[in-house]
Amino acid sequence: MRLSGPVLVVLGCFSIMGSAQTVRLGCPEGYVVAEVDKRLSKKPADPDLYHHWVRGGALLVTQGGSGGQLLHGPCEAFHPNGQLREKGDFHHGLKDGEWRHWDANGVLYLVQHWKKGRQHGPERRLKADRTTMEERIFARGLVKEPSRKREGSEHARPRKLRDGEAAPFDGEKPEPRKKKPLLNRRDREPAKATKEPGRSKTRAKGPRGGKRKEPTPAP
After folding, report:
1. 154 CB burial (10 A radius; 0-12, 13-18, 19+)
2. For the segment 84-115, what is each residue's pLDDT rounded down to a tens digit?
3. DSSP string, the chain
4. Nearest C-alpha neighbor of 107 from the set 136, 88, 127
């Protein structure tokens, strides 16, 4: 969700420190109190991102560019009755960190996480029954689709592989592993060749490793 704009009238300015300036801006939905950077940004703007900036007493939101002082720092938006409407931070005109949203009765109905202009992280939104919150996960502005649904839950989380098998979810008992049958020593080792009795392959050798000569009988 982007801040509504344009803002009509500058109601006042206060707390000027260094390059940061805190301004209070009026708008049809109430008013906004935010910090702006007095220095004009010279960095090229991302064409896919929405930049929030102030010029001529108006708060403007432009995709892919800016033409004034960028919002930089904490920002709070209020309903006409004084209730808090939005609260979060800007980083050089881009939403950053956690943003919370309330309705005119002060009920929190949306919590988002941003990273330099892109929605990144969990999002919790109040359901139509106004009693429970539903959650989605974003990654760089896109909804992260679940790969596998968990029984009894609306959201899915990918399982890590353990030895080629899916590991159990939190609170889920792992399946017992099948034990491999133990082999006896006689089954693991190859059988040794046995010698037949009465036969020997060893031969008597001479002094130099040759065959031993039999002595010749005397005449």
Report:
1. exposed
2. 999 999 999 999 999 999 999 999 999 999 99
3. -PPP----EEEEEEEEETTEEEEEEEETTEEEEEEEESSPP-SPPPTTSEEEEEETTEEEEEET--SSEEEEEEEEEE-TTS-EEEEEEEETTEEEEEEEEE-TTS-EEEEEEEETTEE-EEEEEE-TTSS-EEEEEEETTEE---SSPPTT-S---PPPEETTEEPPPTTPPPPPPPPPPPPPHHHHSPPPPPPPTT------B-TTSSBPPPPPPP-
4. 127
Q: How far is residue 199's CA from residue 196's CA, in Å, rounded to a whole number? A: 6
- The model carries a pTM of 0.58
Residue 203: is it exposed, middle or buried by C-beta count within 10 angstroms (0-12/13-18/19+)? exposed
Read off the pLDDT of residues 24-68 as tens digits, 9 standing for 90 and up: 988 888 899 999 987 777 777 888 999 999 988 888 899 998 888
